[in-house]
Design brief:
The complex is a heterodimer.
Chain A lengths: L4 E3 L2 E4 L5 E6 L6 E8 L3 E9 L2 E5 L6 E5 L5 E5 L8 E8 L7 E2 L3 E5 L1
Parallel strand pairs in A: 2-11
Antiparallel strand pairs in A: 1-3, 3-8, 4-5, 4-9, 5-6, 7-8, 9-10, 9-11
Chain B lengths: L3 E4 L2 E5 L4 E7 L6 E7 L5 E8 L4 E4 L2 E6 L4 E6 L8 E8 L7 E3 L3 E6 L1
Parallel strand pairs in B: 2-11
Antiparallel strand pairs in B: 1-3, 3-8, 4-5, 4-9, 6-7, 7-8, 9-10, 9-11
The chains are: A mainly beta, B mainly beta.
């Protein structure tokens, strides 16, 4: 079956702009989590959605937001981009908590 | 504070060698632990998931163990191959009503042909 897909794969934005990233989970998976990966901080949890509800949120500013649709697809939005937002953004899907999590290929965001 | 650490940060071995990667976690109330590999610039590939009630899991040449009392997990790779070269990450889940993973900093493995 198809894996987790993320679009776009690469993005270049300017400081102050906003960006929306998309994640389509594996069919049947209702949990979608988002992570930010940077060389300095490693992988950090952003938030998790389950059945269209945010179930947990990491320690990121309010400029980072997300949502999940009824088909379990999820989007995350970053407003007022800063240089420090440059990172690889990864999403993961699973059936529910405690189940194996599967990651997508990521979206590489560069803020100039 | 729940933290996960991995030692060593980097490892280089000759092809064919058996090796062990280490993962330590500060909070023993772990729900499960998952091992991943990441190739440069790519996403994470799940290798093994160990539930808190399990002591080990095996998949092919990989064997992962979990010792909650000591706060440690190890990933054993048998007969290493150049294709095993990647960064290996462990991630702990503490359950509750969330799937949040707390990641270690990773071990960069290079298998020399």
């Amino acid at each position: 079956k198809a894996g987790v897909t993320q679009t776009p794969r690469y993005l270049i934005k300017t400081r102050g702009q906003q960006v929306t990233l998309s994640c389509s989970p594996i069919s049947g998976h209702r949990s979608v989590s988002w992570y930010q990966q940077t060389p300095g901080q490693g992988l950090q949890f952003l938030f998790e959605y389950f059945s269209e509800t945010q179930r947990n949120k990491g320690n990121f500013p309010g400029r980072f937001s997300g949502r999940q649709f009824s088909n379990s697809r999820s989007e995350m939005n970053v407003s007022t981009l800063e240089l420090g937002d440059s990172a690889l953004y990864l999403c993961a899907s699973s059936r529910d908590r405690g189940h194996e999590q599967y990651f997508g290929p990521g979206t590489r965001l560069t803020v100039t | 504070k729940q933290e996960v650490t991995q030692i060593p940060a980097a490892l280089s071995v000759p092809e064919g060698e058996n090796l062990v990667l280490n993962c330590s976690f500060t909070d023993s109330a772990i729900y499960n632990l998952q091992w991943f590999r990441q190739d440069p610039g790519k996403g994470l590939t799940s290798l093994l998931l160990i539930q808190s009630s399990q002591r080990e899991q095996t998949s092919g040449r990989l064997n992962a163990s979990l010792d909650k009392s000591s706060g440690r997990s190890t990933l054993y790779i048998a007969a290493s191959q150049p294709g095993d070269s990647a960064t290996y990450l462990c991630a702990a889940s503490y359950g509750g009503a969330t799937n949040k993973l707390i990641f270690g900093t990773g071990t960069l493995l290079a298998v020399q042909p």
